[in-house]
Amino acid sequence: MSGTLALAAVSAVLKYTLVNSLGDYNVDTAVGSVGVSAVAPDKVDADAPAINLFLLRTDINAGWAHNALPSRNSQGAPIARPDLPLDLYYLVSAHATTDFVAEILLGYAMQIFHERPVLPRQLIRDALVSPSLITADTPAAMLAAIAAADLAGQVEQIKFSLEPSAWETMAHIWSALQTQYRPCALYKASVVLIESTTRAESALPVRSYNIYPLPFRQPVIDDVIAADGPGTPILSTKDVRIRGRRLRGDDTRVRLAGLELSSAALTASDSEISFSLPAAARAGILGAQVIHQLALGTPPVAHRGVESNVAALILQPQITQTGAAYNMAIVPPAGDVPRLLRVQLAPLVDERQRVQLLLNEFNPP
Fold first, then answer.
1. Which residues lie closer than 8 Å to 131 by C-beta, 6 or more apart?
2. Which residues contact 62 (CB under 8 A, 6 or more apart)?
3. Are the C-beta atoms of 117 and 14 separated by less than 8 Å?
4. Is the overall model pTM greater than 0.70, yes or no?
5. Residues 6 or more apart in contact with residue 198 via CB below 8 angstroms
6. Contact 122, 128 (CB under 8 A)
7. How buried is 30 (Cβ within 10 angstroms: 0-12 exposed, 13-18 middle, 19+ buried)?
8. Tens of pLDDT along 264-297?
9. Residues 6 or more apart in contact with residue 224 via CB below 8 angstroms
10. All domains in the chain, ordered by first residue
11. Which of 196, 180, 211 shows the shortest CA–CA distance to 64?
């Protein structure tokens, strides 16, 4: 990963690319000796032909900007070491005092960079140890320090491409530089990853771990019927059957109208679950759902697992019987005072439920 000298390393590699390719295009034959520099345009020697590379500005790279988020915890302490991803924008300018020389130099530079859109890792290594970059302004010790940035070792290779720019943009650039305009082109180097030196807090060591490879078995309920078979009413005194697929799990439970029945209260197979209705169930439309709990952790603790779809059933109320007689009574049994009809129902009526008693609904036998 690149160090803090990565920006200087990119400039050095680009300068080496130009210097090392002079002979391939016979530029010396056409215009004589050509200098290559990486300074501000106003610092270029105006008396000799030269190509100059100037790092104009830097921007954060959008593709890598959020790669290591979040990098800090809620207390603000660093928990990761995010890299600083930068796009570098270079102004490549040609300087000369005679006819056509600046055009020749700019064309040469643009052709070189066009043929090398990516900076190979080996080129970076060769450039940062090349004697051709050692000058009075760039001593060997400085070049060695730049090489230590390990630009070639970063994860993503650096692309160098021509950046479209309007005339107004170039005019603003040269106006800000406060120097005479020169033939130029704008390039972008992307992406340079500068490794953070911030020390992140290490996570606590893991004493033990649990891995649970589980198949995906979601239970499916097809219908809910009375134990006596389809078409018979579901009553509180009768068992209920849930029919479906993949109903049985390691810890199978049934949720019924907010009540949860444990596996001990169920008789379960893959295609059917039978159970008695709990006493707390009330008459009306109820929802039934099959739940497969997962035992996780050390020691194992039941965790919420997969759940089936919810199927509706109708629990019908009935008048209870004592022997052959229905538990109904008129209170008081005789007299001219208003009397009440007392009926015992199963299941019990909740205080929030409304009950209607239909009298003389059918013809007597």
1. none
2. none
3. no
4. no
5. 78, 81
6. no
7. middle
8. 999 999 999 999 999 889 999 999 999 999 988 8
9. 234, 240, 241, 242, 243, 288, 311, 312, 313
10. 6-194 (no CATH), 220-317 (2.60.40)
11. 196
